[in-house]
Design a protein that fits this description.
The complex is a heterodimer of chains A (297) and B (851). Chain A contains 10 helices and 4 strands. In chain A, the strands form 2 sheets. A two-stranded antiparallel ribbon of chain A has the order 1-2. Chain B is α/β, with parallel strands linked by helices. Chain B has a 6-stranded mixed sheet with strand order 6-7-8-3-9-10, with helices on both faces. A 6-stranded mixed sheet of chain B has the order 15-16-17-13-18-19, with helices on both faces. In chain B, strand 16, helix 16 and strand 17 form a beta-alpha-beta unit. Chain B is globular and about 105 Å long. Classes of the chains: A mainly alpha (297), B alpha/beta (851). The interface between A and B is large, with 99 and 128 residues.
């Protein structure tokens, strides 16, 4: 299956940037709800039902934020109860906290999707477009991390028998030994870096008078172009609508959110934007099951 | 057409007296195959890297001309000369196979569409299409070598220079690679220069060959003549020739067969005409005491089982070799025996508790001192033993050298010496013959035999069938997760048809009992002289001296003790008060008030613990910090301007947008610096390694959750490498580590926070540094710069409306975690900086980084 995950990183980046920014800055309750639901569904379509786990993890954190808000924030007109510190806990603050909590949850889910979509090679590619040296540095870091992890393990294994045991003994001794192992492994790898540099130079890195190109396996085809244009158009429409106050909302001093025709149309556009990856994934799944069906016949 | 013309070339390394290669002259034509052999340290690698024009810090005499142009000024060398060094692991630059293939093409500015077709071509030629999207780190040794060969070919070179391409491979993979190199030469007409110890397969492919000895050419000619020349000169390098040629030389046959096929024919003919002196069947070794026995061992990572029901007995005083393909689980087996890994099921029974010595595949991981001698003295062995070990391992000439400056063979000897000096009963060796010449292999086998005679046991994991055949008491084959056969080398090598020595293959059908080259040569009347004399009594374990007791640590002055106690107590008190267990009023303004009560206790604590010795950096020529200060000032000005203009306008969520803008403004100048300055290959590789270390180092401190050395490593790196590289290392570390642990809106903030922490460390400590100062800086920078920025980020993310009350409540709840991070930074700087600063400084000087 190709799916949204296999789209050119530029298309995915434009989409994810757009949905996260709008979710973060346009916290109209309707928009927040759409964002949270579509983000969760997209995550499920990418990774299955276990993709909803992050929601469980952030729940306590935002309950806590909610409590802090109630304790210290006394804006709003509908007083629920008065705290011993003299602070008023208000309905508006509660509603505000719940709404921004939902927006945060939506953001977390979008970030979860983007982690799933943006594999390291895509990040390196995108960075490499803007800052080629940084992109290369990142690629090399990703290459060295497993090597260093292996070297550190080998070093810990070998040093164990020459008086530097990380695996047993008191915590202080173990930490001391681990530090020695770490610095030995780092020194060995830093020496290795000099050999890597030889290999880089050997393959033409840094030769004078040549502009380094940057190669990628990703292709920007018609599909990607369509998605990109759609995202740009919808984002522009929502941004314009938002700027002209078509989706006004507020919590203080009292709860207020526009739900007239303009707001509904804008919310529809927002829904359309949010379901792009979901619809791509679902259509492809449907096609595959059709193909399987035909094969079976 | 002549590719290379080398005229009377000599090269002396920077800071060395004697030249590494001397008076070398030869020519290489288009499409020729040149093979260079020689013992380790004979100058092979030096010559090859000079031919690529990579050596620039030493002095050279004579000249190397490539296409009639001096190699040093040759513009086309990047494209036309493909060079692979002898370290496949460090050769790989990028993380994914397709990118590795494209790397060279990107550097030489080839267009995207052309790179695509070249990669496709190279992948097809070498049959590695399936690997294109794999991670380079997951490839086997053989695949890595094939990849590095393919990535050179993407550049369409006219000559390939390969430095010991086979040394890390098992026999099957080595044959595969040899065949590929041959195909490149024959089918594509690309000239090839190979330096190698493992000759048999390569000799029949090459057109020209020469033997280097001590930096000079000892013999030169077509490969079939080389054994003759060496034989006539009675040159010791004869022992590196294929066993068939050596046997024929010993018999004075006048011909020198190089392959098993020719050797077999000659041997049959010889046997028909002469009578063979067959080796006396060695009396089976009397059954020794068992040392340990492994029963039904199962072991695996995740889903795949590496070992499935493995059974093996190890006896005292025996040399057991374990062979098997790549990734058969040989290294895992060693780890299980010595207890570094625990089996999932099954058990290991020890009949007595032995002291282990583990020789890792990468021997430099053993070293932690400044010189080989210091390394040996640190083990606590007495002087007499050390001098015996030095003699035994031939380390006399390199005693004062830094262990990392040694050549591959010397490094292995030194690592072995350390293990001996520490003393052990069971020696576990992981590929000890990797990259060793035949002369040292003889020495190693003598050392190991003597070790066994002294009652020690050796378990040796190796691809090197010849070495196993000559030295093993028993040979085991690891296949499919179990030991499929474990018997004497006679049975093992004479019954195997493929996985056996060339000597056994040659003698098969003529004299079936023969399986080592020694026996083969002996059978035609020759003998191998062993000139090495080993000092006696070295492995006499009964008289092994107890390691001397470590000197009692120096007493701390009273003043420091008081500082420690006071600091510890008051820090604990502040932490408890801040933990929220006690209802204390959180001060509202100014915002740094919650941090203030901690300053005194921490300073006291650091003065109390910090050792006095300061880390004096080497003398620098000139501090180059003008650019950095300017960058800092410009950034600060832009940030202040943005804040002043936009902050009053911002309301609600726009606060976050303005903050984000400021953030990006702070990051941009540093990355512009990186892009514009064009860091050299050395610099960028060193930065990548330090970032990777900061990420991978977390795993080592599994016993301390939340207490990680990342910030400390970044600060130390900045202190050694400077402020600018420090910032890059800090920012890139956070970026890359989030790539593994999850990206989020916090990534950009973390990049800036860690980058600035490192940047100021670089400004402060690049020229002057002391441990105490670095510790104190580490604590406060992580608490205030890193913690402060991350608190603002967290607060703005969760609470769009800025409100003093909630902000301070937020900081107060985050404070305990910030203090843990800050303490971790200070503690790790205290522990790490001593050794690491010295080592990084050395590497920086040696390779001329960041100049």
């Amino acid at each position: 299956m190709r799916g949204f995950k296999k789209y050119h990183p530029f298309a995915s980046a434009v989409f994810l940037l757009s949905v996260t920014l709008i979710t973060a800055f346009l916290q109209h309750p309707l928009f927040t709800a759409v964002s949270l639901i579509t983000a969760s569904l997209t995550a499920v379509s990418l990774k299955g039902i276990k993709a909803l786990k992050p929601l469980l993890y952030i729940l306590p954190f935002y309950l806590f934020a909610c409590v802090i808000n109630l304790l210290f924030n006394n804006a709003g007109v509908t007083v629920l109860f008065v705290l011993p510190t003299g602070n008023n806990a208000t309905l508006e603050t509660l509603a505000y906290s719940l709404n921004s909590g939902a927006a945060m949850a939506a953001l977390v889910m979008w970030f979860y999707c983007s982690c799933e979509i943006f594999t390291s090679d895509k990040v390196a590619y995108l960075l490499g477009c803007a800052a080629p040296k940084l992109g290369l540095l990142l690629t090399m870091i990703l290459r060295f991390v497993p090597l260093l992890a292996r070297r550190i393990k080998q070093c810990a294994h070998a040093q164990r028998f020459i008086g530097c045991d990380v695996y047993s003994g008191g915590p202080v001794v173990r930490v001391k030994n681990a530090v020695k192992v770490l610095s030995t492994a780092i020194a060995a790898c830093a020496e290795g870096a000099a050999r890597t540099a030889v290999s880089m130079k050997g393959r033409g890195y840094g030769i004078k008078g040549v502009r380094r190109t940057s190669y990628t396996v990703f292709r920007f085809a018609a599909k990607e172009a369509a998605v990109t244009v759609a995202v740009f158009a919808l984002t522009a429409a929502i941004a314009a609508g938002g700027a002209f106050g078509a989706a006004e909302y507020g919590f203080y001093p009292y709860i207020f959110a526009k739900t007239d025709a303009a707001a509904i149309i804008l919310a529809a556009a927002w829904t359309l934007l949010c379901v792009i990856p979901l619809s791509i994934n679902l259509t492809e799944k449907l096609r595959i099951s059709e193909v399987k069906h035909i094969d079976a016949v | 057409m002549t590719l290379y013309e080398v005229n009377d070339f000599s090269y002396t390394y920077h800071g060395k007296d004697l030249p590494a290669v001397k008076n070398i002259s030869f020519t290489l034509d288009e499409g020729e195959f040149l093979l260079i052999c020689g013992s380790s340290g004979s100058g092979k690698s030096t010559l090859l890297s000079c031919m690529k024009g990579l050596e620039d810090r030493g002095t050279s005499k004579g000249e190397i001309l490539f296409l009639k142009e001096n190699i040093k000024s040759c513009a086309s060398s990047a494209r036309d000369i493909g060079y692979a060094s002898q370290f496949p692991e460090e050769q790989t630059v990028t993380d994914i196979v397709w990118h590795e293939l494209a790397f060279g093409a990107e550097n030489t500015g080839i267009k995207q569409s052309e790179i695509r077709s070249r990669i496709a071509e190279a992948a097809l030629f070498f049959g590695i299409e399936d690997l294109l999207y794999r991670k380079t780190d997951e490839l086997s040794g053989g695949q890595k070598q094939i990849l590095s060969l393919a990535s050179l070919l993407v550049l369409r070179p006219r000559v390939l220079i390969l430095d010991e391409p086979l040394s890390q491979l098992d026999p099957i993979a080595a044959e595969e690679l040899t065949a590929l190199i041959g195909r490149v030469n024959r089918e594509l007409g690309i000239a090839v220069v190979v330096a190698e110890h493992r000759l048999p397969g390569l000799m029949s492919l090459s057109d020209k060959m020469f033997v280097l000895d001590g930096g000079v050419i000892a013999a030169k000619g077509v490969p079939s003549d080389i054994p003759k020349i060496l034989h006539e000169k009675a040159h010791p390098m004869l022992c590196s020739m294929p066993c068939t040629a050596r046997a024929a030389a010993a018999a004075d046959a006048g011909e020198y067969p190089l392959t098993v096929k020719d050797g077999k024919a000659w041997y049959k003919k010889y046997a028909a005409e002469h009578s063979l002196t067959l080796p006396a069947t060695a009396a089976p070794k009397s059954p020794c005491e068992p040392l340990c026995s492994l029963k039904d061992i199962y072991f695996g990572y995740d889903k795949t089982d590496v070992l499935k029901g493995l059974c093996l007995d190890i006896f005292k005083g025996e040399l057991l070799t374990v062979s098997g393909g790549n990734a058969a689980g040989k290294t895992t087996l060693l780890s299980l025996i010595c207890g570094n890994l625990k089996p999932i099921s099954g058990g290991i029974r020890f009949f007595e508790k032995p002291r282990f010595g583990l020789f890792p595949q990468e021997p430099s991981l053993i070293f932690s001192a400044e010189s080989v001698l210091e390394e040996l003295e640190n083990t606590g062995a007495d002087e007499q033993k050390i001098s015996q070990i030095i003699k035994l391992c031939r380390l006399g000439s390199v005693l004062r050298s830094h262990p990392f400056d040694l050549s591959g063979g010397e490094r292995q000897r030194a690592a072995l010496a350390v293990l001996f000096a520490k003393g052990c009963d069971v020696l576990l060796l992981d590929e000890p013959t990797k990259g060793l010449d035949s002369e040292y292999k003889l020495l190693l086998s003598d050392i190991l035999k003597r070790f066994c005679l002294g009652g020690g046991s050796v378990v040796l994991v190796s691809h090197d069938v010849d070495f196993c055949a000559e030295n093993a008491d028993r040979c085991a084959l690891l296949f499919g997760g179990e030991i499929t056969c474990c018997c004497t080398p006679e049975e093992f090598f004479t019954s195997n048809l493929f996985y056996t020595t060339d000597a056994a293959k040659t003698a098969q059908g003529t004299a079936d009992g023969i399986f080592t080259s020694e026996q083969l040569i002996g059978s035609v009347g020759g003998n191998i002289s062993r000139k090495e004399t080993i000092p006696n009594g070295l492995f006499d374990f009964q008289t092994a001296p107890e390691p001397p007791e470590t000197a009692p640590p120096k007493k701390k002055p009273l003043f420091r003790k008081i500082c420690t106690a006071l600091g510890g107590l008051s820090a604990a008190a502040v932490m408890v008060l801040n933990s929220g267990l006690f209802p204390i009023k959180i001060p509202e303004e100014p915002f740094f008030l919650p941090y203030l009560p901690l300053i005194l206790p921490v300073i006291l604590l650091l003065i109390g613990i910090a050792p006095k010795n300061d880390l004096s950096p080497p003398v620098r020529k000139k501090p180059r910090q003008t650019a950095q200060v300017v960058t800092l000032l410009v950034t600060a000005a832009v940030v202040v301007l943005t804040a002043a203009i936009l902050m009053p306008l911002a309301t609600g969520r726009l606060y976050y947008a303005v903050a984000l803008l400021i953030l990006v403004e702070c990051l941009i100048p540093f990355f512009i610096f990186l892009e514009k300055k064009k860091p050299s290959a050395k610099d960028i590789a060193a930065m990548a390694v330090m970032c990777a270390a900061a990420i991978a180092g977390r795993g080592l401190f599994f016993m301390l959750p939340q207490f990680k050395p990342t910030a400390a490593l970044v600060i130390i790196t900045a202190a050694v490498f400077g402020a600018q590289p420090g910032f890059i290392v800090g920012a890139a570390t956070m970026l890359a580590s989030n790539m593994m642990f999850g990206q989020g809106p916090w990534t950009v903030w973390q990049m800036l926070a860690m980058g600035l922490t490192a940047f100021f460390a670089g400004l402060l400590f690049y020229n002057r540094r002391s441990k105490t100062a670095m510790c104190i800086y580490g604590f406060f920078s992580v608490l205030i710069i890193y913690g402060g920025i991350m608190n603002i980020s967290g607060y703005l993310t969760a609470q769009p409306v800025f409100d003093a009350g909630t902000f301070f409540a937020y900081i107060a709840t985050a404070l305990p975690f910030d203090i843990i991070h800050a303490t971790a930074a200070a503690v790790f700087i205290l522990l790490l900086s001593g050794e690491l600063v010295k080592r990084l400084d050395r590497i920086k000087e040696k390779y001329g980084l960041f100049v």
